[in-house]
Amino acid sequence: MAVGKPLRQLGLKSERLLMPQKASYFQAEVENLEEKVGLTTLEKAIRWAQTKSMWPDTFGLACCAIEMMSIVSSRYDIARFGMEAFRSSPRQADLLIVSGRVSHKMAAPLRQIYDQMLEPKWVIAMGACASSGGMFNNYAVLQSVDKIVAVDVYVPGCPPRPEQLMEGIIRLHEAIQAGVPPAYDLRSVAS
Amino acid sequence: MGAWEAVPGFVSVREQHGETTVVVETERLPEAAEYLRDEAHFNMLSDIAPTDYLGWGRAGVSGYIGTPGGRDLNAPMTQGYQALPEARPKRFSISYHLLSVSTEPRRLRLQCWADDGEPVPSVIGVWPTADWHEREAWDMMGIRIEGHPHLRRLLMEDDWEGHPLRKDYPIGGEPVRFSEEE
Q: Which domain holds residue A60?
């Protein structure tokens, strides 16, 4: 992991990210050397590959799903990032974009789909309802999907514009390339 | 159709806002439904709308809008007229919205009244679409439908307790963090 490196060199454009854990001084030296000489490690290559072709799972629940559909369209075009293949089967998906309000009745199938995904897997909570319950604070709606799955990125909005969702996806890509592990390794809840 | 009195179990009819509402006795509801489907050709049941009138007529509940002195909405610019809603016979009203799909389509509201715990006979033998509507009436309002082959919850989970759309059911939810509720 990087110690004392400017964020730009890690490929991150923002500080608002969980900082990678501090590792040994030796590792920092090796990374400095690699950077200067132009080598790469296997982990970095794997992370690059994970980022460049991350297939989302079709989990559109409500209104946010419309915005998620529109980023596949030509105007916002998530195919630029290799993600236009939305897989219906969770076995073939890397990313679960929870878009829309999750009712308590839907929470069980959501957890089942999440369990069926293979590691490594990431979760984006898209919209206000998936992040916190949104405007629906009542008996029927689960107040935040992070009560049942471990979320990597929260995208606020009601619904978030396609560009906002794309920003969330890009930040996730940057975090992965920087070496941040998936959320189920970091959070102790719902892992 | 002029003579609504021929409907079995007829209680009253009301024409308001261009809509006709026929109120029948709850026990004779299936006969009335069959009569309306066969004789008056109302072959489609659009909707079953149960309504909870708990607390109707008390101050602060729906039906009273405006200044403390009251206001008659049908006569604008009147002050001091208390427009109280008319009393309701029982707690729940179940309205069946019927449509006759034909070259001259007509709509009708068939209504019956029920108390809490009073069973309402099913019209599933007359219009099979009533299946899910009656399950929703049971789930959301707790109106027990007699004669329904599988009356179980539709929208809420199977083991949910309570009937959410009743007037005395709390809205639920969680206290919002960093607010005064916590």
A: 51-186
> How far apart are alpha carbons A141 and B32 in whole angstroms?
39
Query: Is the ipTM here above 0.90?
Result: no
Chain B CB contacts of A105 under 8 Å are 155-157
Is some CB atom of chain A closer than 8 A to the CB atom of B57?
A: no
* Confidence label for A43 from pLDDT (cuts 50, 70 and 90): confident
Chain A residue with minimal CA distance to B161?
A139
Domain count along chain A: 1
Residue B105 in tokens? 């389509």
Token output for A44:
């970095």
Contacts 24+ apart (CB under 8 A), A25-34: A27/A1, A27/A3, A28/A1, A28/A2, A28/A3, A28/A4, A31/A2, A31/A5
Whole-prediction pTM: 0.76
The structural domains of chain B, ordered by start, are 7-53+87-170 (3.30.460.80)
Q: How far is A132 from chain B (nearest CA, A)?
A: 10
Contact: B157, A105; criterion CB under 8 Å: yes
For residue A139, tell me if it sits in a domain: yes
- The two tokens of residue B142 are 């707790």
- Which residue from A108, A103, A153, A104 is spatially nearest to A126, judged by alpha carbons? A153
| A138 domain-assigned | yes
Q: How does strand A153-155 pair with strand A95-99?
A: unpaired
Lowest mean pLDDT of A82-91, B36-45, B73-82, B92-101, name the range: B73-82
pLDDT at B110 over 90: yes
Is A140 close to B172, i.e. CB distance below 8 A? yes
